[in-house]
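Q: Second attempt. The first request was missing the SMILES, so the protein and zinc ion are both included now.
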Amino acid sequence: MRALAFFRRHKGPLLSAALLLLLTALLLYAAARPDRHVIEADWDEERRTLCVQQTTLLTNRTGAALTALDFRLCGNAFSAQEGAPVSKERFSAAYPSGFSPGETRVRAAFVNGRKASWEWADEARTILRLHLPFSLRPQGGVEISLAYEVQLGENRLRTGVSARQARLCNLFALLCPHDGERFRHDAYGPIGDPFVTSTADWEVTLRAPTRLVAAGPGLQSVQDGVWRFSGRNLRDFALTLSADYCVAQGEAAGATVRSFAFTQESAERALAYACRALDIYAALFGDYPFPDFTVCAADLCAGGMEYPALALVGAELYEQAGGALEYAVAHEAAHQWWYAAVGSDQVLYPWQDEALAEYSALLYVEAAHGEAAFDALCAARLAPALEIPALQGVGVAQPLARFASEEVYDAVVYRRGAAMLHDVRGLLGDEAFFAALRQYFAQNRFAVAPPGALLKTFGADGAARALSWLRGETP
Ligand SMILES: [Zn+2]
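A: Got both inputs this time. The predicted holo structure:
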């Protein structure tokens, strides 16, 4: 009775306090709630077209109130020969049968279930601007639904189709990075991986002809040509499809590892390298961040390509003698720590994940094959990049836009970047250097880390040494 009397007397302030608590809890919940993409996709092999129904639940984490959302839909980057993200030198390898256009066609867009207006915000038609019928406050949530078709060109690039494979990569709509004032529209040029994305949970259902095998992260089930995948904390979602895939499966670093290649022997070999890499990196940097890892042979005109819990590795590397395949798998597996888990701005600071992935691949060689193999590889891969006269005084820290050739990009970002890390390791000693990398990983897992987050872990002397490489004062 006494409590009731107290409540009656103080009803107003008590209700206000309760309301305030509820609002705070809701805001905290919204801030912590991961973004989520639900994808229903149908692969039409004859038309080389993926029909996509994408529902995305987003929290506005830009810090600004928004009246429009800009999404990156990369498909139209491949619609015209001029502007396709491939260098002149690589064009004939990328399009062996001549140029073949790809296209993304948007059919409908909805915001919170109501039809919404949209437009292409750039000339290349790769930025879809969706107008909101309200102002979305910071930490506010919104549900976006998009219906679109992506037709793929015939090529040997990460987004495209070849005779025996479809690469459904960088296809889905992802929110553009935001600089606090506006959405960034980063150019999709021929050099590097110009993607800056935040992590989200994904549910992907793919319907494809039953003769095809789909390789993707987080496989949940497959039945009658319906493939279901799901994953948490993924910055993007990529898949490959082939009727010719052989599959091998194993376990490493607490994860299921799957390998898809065009012969069983190839699949087994890549699986062994992938498992070894995951075990080595987990011991060096911290636990592998996902429940599974998929490595798949891909008809690429060069190298490999990383995606969350997935790596494409150039099919030609499987044929080569020597350690090319092993090194490529080691490099792409390292991106699961540096890119997929610890994100970075790959447009402004491409060195941040690439130098780490390149140096990690060298660390793999050191752990797997010993110090002599490591030294030989450092001498073969890193030392020449330090001796190129034209690159003297060129810092490792260059944005993608500054690079005019892939050779220079490779020499500066990968090789000089890895040499920088090797130098910092020499200065700090192994114990402090690996403790720094473990700290960088643990503190920035599933975030987009600024370069300073890495430098900070090196301590004052290590950071000063790294900075002198980044600025071009060393070597
Ligand atoms: Zn890389």
